[in-house]
Amino acid sequence: METTPGTAAPGPVRPAEKSRTPKRDYPGALVVVEGIDGSGKSTQLYLLKRWLEIGGYRIHFTEWNSSPLVKSATRRGKQRRLLTPTTFSLLHAADFADRCERQILPLLQGGYLVLADRYIYTAFARDVARGCTAHWLRNLYRFAPIPDITFYFRAPLDVAVNRIVAGRPKLKYYEAGMDLGLSLDRAESFRIFQERILSYYDRMVESDRFVLMDGTVPVNRLQKQMREILGDRIPLAQFAPKKP
Amino acid sequence: MKPSAKNPLAAAPPAIKRVIKPKREPASRFYGTPLPGVKEEELSGSLIVLEGTDGSGRSTQIALLTEWLESEGFAVQTMGLRRSFLVADDIDALLAENAVTRLTLALMYGTDFFDQLERRILPALRSGLVVLADRYIYTLIARSAVRGIGRDYLHGIYEMALRPDITFWLNVKPEVAFDREFKKSHTINYWESGRDMSLSNDLFRSFIRYQSLIRKEFEYLSRRHGFIDVDGEASVATVNNQLRKRIAAHLGIRSTRYHPSHALAHVWR
Hints:
- The complex is a heterodimer.
- Chain A is α/β, with parallel strands linked by helices.
- Chain A is built from nine helices and five strands.
- Chain A is globular.
- The N and C termini of chain A lie far apart (39 Å).
- Helices cover 43% and strands 10% of the residues of chain B.
- By secondary structure, chain B is α/β, with parallel strands linked by helices.
- Chain B has helices at residues 58-71, 88-97, 102-126, 137-146, 151-157, 174-185, 203-225, 236-251; strands spanning 46-51, 76-80, 130-134, 166-171, 228-231.
- At the A-B interface, helix 3, helix 4 and helix 6 of A face helix 2, helix 3 and helix 5 of B.
């Protein structure tokens, strides 16, 4: 039986330290975007993906959302509001493990440039904001390959929150962090919850080598920066279409 | 199944030879950081765990212990694997399909465990009940560890779990477990024989090899966590006497006299 390839770092290293060095025992590369809702990350990743697609690069795009595997459990838990911070976290970890082992890792081994809209840092920020311990979460997600680049899109809280609240008629219960009893008002609860998430994201900038992106910069200029950083850090020729 | 040294999820060989002294007086009722929001001092009940493979007699003993404790005036709550409201059905579906990776399965079992712990067991312990667990985190750790997932990773996940007051290990040889299971269900379960691990194409051999691996893990866990190793091959009555004696001492029950009711008399042999 084989062991999981391409995982973070060897042996009994402390979880906090192991996440710093990308370990590349696969030919592919992993680029992720992170940030709170409304920070502009998905737009930017979409534009990056289009640029690479049009250029014919070997890429794959993956999103942080529920696979059929845990969909029924998540739905059951959310509808009846049964999820605790721990089970919420574990269920999402199970879901991510499935995507990781069946999609992300094989693609990295197959030499793809994998673009991920949200990654394990989303779980760290959101679950710490819910009350899980960071140490426990770091261990839980140890199996995840470390990204080659993590773009962190940072927009001021008010800008991000207003983008979301304006665009969505109703915030969902867990999305707004209503399970934490922060406020009876959903919009207010959402704001406090996002503020907590944002502050944990900020704490990871250094420890997890985030590339800070200013979410208030105009879209096209930000995209230009993103493409330049990608070109500097990733040997793109490796993923380019083969010339006959 | 050679675990790679590079891999944090790979299991290190069990350090069975090293003598690990069980902590006599655990400082905390949790293995590590407690679950968020739980106050230990509120947990006045007792958690008693029965571990052992299929065919070790766990369910029979739990039925008997429940009856005995209730007759002594103790309210009992039970837990087991795949019994959560949240994900039990989903795990059943995953097992039936056999299209799931070992890591995902391990995390689904973890969800199942913590759902029961947080929503059923902790409330029971706060109310002073005796919780009888038909298997606990040790089976979950052992099953994943023999499949190559690192022990420190697994212990890390379950560090927020509650440390049992007593853990009995109903220890039986794989051959005996095989006989008992076959008698009971006329076949051998796919997962209980480790068929996903390609140990052997021969069902009997696969079962024996898999259960031997699990047993080795339990020997290690037993040292590390101070299990009470009970000879599960002894008669139901003998095993039950041993369990009652130990539980009575823990709960301060003076007499351990017990005769099963008519409803349970048939298992008393």
